[in-house]
Design goal:
There is one protein chain. With about 375 residues, this protein is of the alpha/beta class. The protein is about 45% helix and about 15% strand. The chain has helices at about 10-20, 35-45, 55-60, 65-75, 85-90, 95-100, 115-125, 150-165, 210-220, 230-250, 265-275, 305-315, 325, 355-370, and strands spanning about 25, 25-30, 50, 80-85, 105-110, 140, 170, 175, 185-190, 200-205, 255-260, 280-285, 300, 320, 335. Helix 8 (about 150-165) packs across helix 14 and helix 9 packs antiparallel against helix 10 (about 230-250). About 50% of the residues are buried. The model is unreliable at about 1-5 (pLDDT under 50).
């Protein structure tokens, strides 16, 4: 499948903005129309700036408007990052030449150049994270303002690393800008689809099995750490999870589940529900290109019609995904896993990573299953 804009998922421009806006100390300027500005602004809930170019700028050029915005921000002394959008790219404007007199971070990432993940990684590569051998601790990678679980993931991994006696070095991408030059040599990730390649990755943090393996490696690689308290917590919380799932299965049949998300999150959801609820994973609609084999029917989907066709064909009890899938789920129950998640208030930090993340995810699925009319086993 050729790389294209996925109507179910933000484009490269939004990915670049989410990466840059995660760093405190950078002012992100979206060089484009008001629509190009408001789309990431409503999804990321971050302070962004736009040039809001108009029809006359398309005809006569956008240089004057861009310079005006950049110079106004420059007076504040803050670091400026400019992200280009489709209109200036199609016009063929030389944005780098326009900004030659200004010290800005320029990310050429119009939406048509590819996926959200591609834009995220491109912007981060331009920021150029630097590993400092003297930086103590472990980096947390794969964090994005676009992810509704990012705050909870960061808090949960701070908690687990502290439990193991390990400090956090740099959070990519949700940290102070200056810390991008002080990354530690070791890294763990919350979302492998967004892995930056900074330092040596010790593993993922989605699910109990991944946590056990990652903290085993942390214990081996980080001499002053003590991962035993984390292992004890994993054992204790997994036993609680098994008891809750067994109680459900004594009353009800295992659910049939359709999952729609990026490949990393979808894989976690499928493996977890199969292991603890004996769920039948009737389909996975991955919004990103699958990066490995899964023992479940998996498709790379690019629009809502594909998602709707999968749901109708598989007739699941539960649909896991975004507001898009919720709009076509029919009578199936629903659990939110990936943005956009409209129509509900999300204020508290809810993780998907760590022990708490697995518990909260399965808790949501169990409640959705019990809320839906079903046959007693």
């Amino acid at each position: 499948m050729p790389e294209c804009i996925n109507p179910l998922y933000p484009c490269a421009m939004t990915g670049a903005v989410s990466s840059l806006a995660g760093f405190n100390g950078i002012v992100v300027v979206i060089h484009g129309s008001s629509g190009c500005y408001y789309y990431p602004a409503t999804l990321l809930h971050a302070p962004l700036t736009g040039t809001f170019i108009l029809e006359e700028d398309v005809i006569f050029g956008s240089e004057e408007r861009l310079i005006e915005v950049v110079e106004e921000i420059a007076r504040t002394g803050k670091r400026i990052a400019v992200v280009t959008t489709c209109v200036p790219a199609i016009l063929g404007e030389d944005i780098r030449a326009m900004l030659a007199a200004h010290d800005v971070i320029l990310v050429d990432s119009p939406g048509f150049t590819g996926s959200y993940e591609k834009g995220y990684k491109k912007a981060l590569s331009i920021l150029d994270p630097q590993v400092s051998p003297d930086s103590a601790g472990i980096n947390i990678d794969g964090v994005s303002l676009f992810d509704p679980f990012f705050r909870g993931n960061v808090q949960e991994l701070f908690r687990l690393l502290a439990l193991a006696g390990v400090p956090v070095a740099t959070v990519l991408c949700a940290d102070k800008y200056e810390k991008i030059r002080k990354c530690a040599p070791l890294t763990i990730t919350t979302d492998s689809d967004l892995a930056s390649g900074t330092g040596t990755c010790l593993g993922g943090t989605l699910g109990f099995d991944a946590l056990n393996e990652t903290f085993r490696r942390i214990g081996e690689a980080f001499g002053t750490s003590d991962p035993d308290p984390v292992f004890e917590e994993i054992t204790r919380e997994e036993e609680r999870l098994v008891r809750a799932c067994d109680k459900y299965l004594r009353r009800f049949d295992p659910p049939q589940v359709a999952i729609f998300s990026n490949f990393s999150y979808a894989s976690f959801a499928a493996v977890t529900l199969k292991k603890y609820l004996d769920a039948e994973i009737v389909c996975i609609g991955s919004r990103t290109e699958p990066t490995g084999p899964l023992p479940f029917p998996t498709s790379w989907i690019t629009d809502l019609a594909d998602a709707q066709a999968l749901i109708r064909r598989s007739d699941p009890d539960i649909v896991i995904g975004s507001s898009f899938e919720r709009s076509v789920k029919g009578s199936a129950g629903f659990v939110g896993l990936t943005p956009p998640l409209r129509g509900r208030v999300y204020i508290s930090p809810r993780p998907l990573a760590g022990t708490s993340g697995t518990l909260l995810f399965v808790e949501d699925v169990l409640n959705a299953c019990m809320d839906k009319p079903h046959t007693l086993s």
